[in-house]
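[09:14] KT: can someone run the structure on this one? pasting the chain below
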Amino acid sequence: MPEADVVRFDTNTALWPPVAWERTVLDLPRLPANEYPHPSNEPLRSLLARRLGVAADQVVVTCGADEALFLVASAYLGPGRSAIVADPSFSMFRVVTESVGGGLRKVAVDENWDMPLEATLEAVREPTVGVVWLCSPNNPTGRLLSAELVEAVLAAAPNAVVAVDEAYAEISGQSLATLVLGAPNAVLVRTFSKGYGLAGARVGYLAGPLELTRTIETVRLPQNMTAFGIAAACRALEDQVGLAERVAEIVEERERLDRELRRRGWELVPSAANFVLGRPPRPAADVSAWLQGAGLIVRSYPDHPRLNDWLRMTVRAPNEDDRLLARLDAARY
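[09:31] RB: done, structure tokens below
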């Protein structure tokens, strides 16, 4: 099958084109591509700081949110140190933790797919804990964290860094930024890959108190960004009207996809992100293989005891979602 006919429902990327894309393209001829970007990735860093209401040196601009997570792990984890994470949650938390030799303790979500308060607090109080990974909305469930849980974790783990990943904050419309940025032991992690649609530009950032961001800067490699990525993110930040329109499209299509899957007998977890997690009426492995045969790639979890009969699907453009629904109907899935 030609690659152009394949639709990736497994990557949680956004609709084409990215926010403010036409203006970004017009900027290209004027980009000083022969020079290195600013060492602190200005002017993007200062723009982000103003939006967050913090000082510029409280922001670290990164090559996607993945690099932000890796920098936190590099600074605060290692042999003899451990991290706490919900199970299930974003797989990159495990990757960056293990890449620096840290241990990982998982806290199983409850029957509603939420982090259980008491079990979470028990885990984060362990003396070896260096980082607590939190994700809101959580990936792959799409569930939001409560402010009460995050506040309790911050108080229970004063010697650990609580990293709150809000990759889908623009889509959910809800944020814990005020709480996180007011804490001495927390960092906020975000990306331009989801709501803004700039996954290919690889732009993310973290923000937190000076004591933490200065430490994190010591493990950041110089020139970690491109002039294009910085320019594209700056343009996207300027276009908040375009972002709001894009988010409205995603939410409307997510609700439609949710309804259509439920009508076909699927069980769905209510999602605040740009994806849905659903359990089909027939074995998930069979459904995934059937969809893949038509070039429709969904995210499956065959080795996870809680998720092995569930599939996660990105909310795509309506015509692409219709291809998925039609393929399901062809086999009565």
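[09:33] KT: thanks! The mean pLDDT is 98.
[09:34] RB: yep, looked fine to me
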